[in-house]
Design brief:
The chain is α+β, with helices and mostly antiparallel strands. It is built from 5 helices and 5 strands; from the N terminus they run H-H-H-E-E-E-H-E-E-H.
């Protein structure tokens, strides 16, 4: 009877120690995962904001000559070149009244660059589904306003990468917990319950 009681007591000690250690370790890993996720999200958001700033500045400068010459072909070539950056969803160039659309491009459902229809797509740049960041800048030459540029940047790809990163962290935490559980049970049984 004492032998059975002793074995049960040993098993109880092993279980409690394992639960405590695994519980503490799991909390640490979860906190690390949350910190890593938030840090990554902040970094990627800052990168997208920086990209939006330098892109709108660059385009505003590159479009000066084309708008001055009223060359729509060159304007569209510049837009297409910039939209090789997949995070740009919509680009709208308006005339100096700020309303009349001179040229514009958007993404279709396959994410290809297509012409923007001013009559039906004039509000698309404000759509939250596509516009994580919207940048607007006047295009000016010799203190004369030639027009304005509006660009919307999507967080679609950032969110996709964050989701993959979060899934990777979760899988890592689970695998570490499984490995830790096995290691603890083996170690406690060998060195604590059955000391050398």
């Amino acid at each position: 009877f004492m032998g059975i009681f002793h074995k049960r007591q040993q098993s109880s000690i092993r279980t409690r120690m394992s639960v405590i250690i695994i519980g503490v370790t799991t909390m640490i890993l979860i906190l690390f995962a949350m910190f890593n996720y938030l840090t990554t999200k902040t970094r990627m958001t800052e990168e997208l904001d920086y990209l939006s700033e330098i892109t709108v500045d660059r385009m505003a400068k590159n479009l000066i000559s084309a708008l001055w010459d009223v060359d729509k072909t060159v304007v569209e070539e510049i837009i297409k070149a910039e939209m090789m950056e997949k995070r740009i969803h919509t680009v709208i160039i308006t005339e100096n009244d700020g309303k009349t659309v001179f040229s514009g491009k958007k993404r279709d459902h396959q994410w290809a660059v297509v012409d923007l229809d001013p009559k039906t797509d004039h509000e698309i740049i404000k759509t939250k589904k596509y516009a994580h960041t919207i940048k607007i800048k006047d295009i000016i030459k010799e203190n004369i306003k030639l027009g304005s540029i509006k660009i919307s940047f999507t967080s679609k790809f950032m969110q996709k990468e964050l989701n993959h990163s979060f899934l990777y962290i979760i899988i890592t935490v689970l695998l570490l917990n499984i490995a830790l559980t096995i290691a603890l049970f083996v170690s406690i049984k060998k060195f604590l319950i059955q000391p050398i």
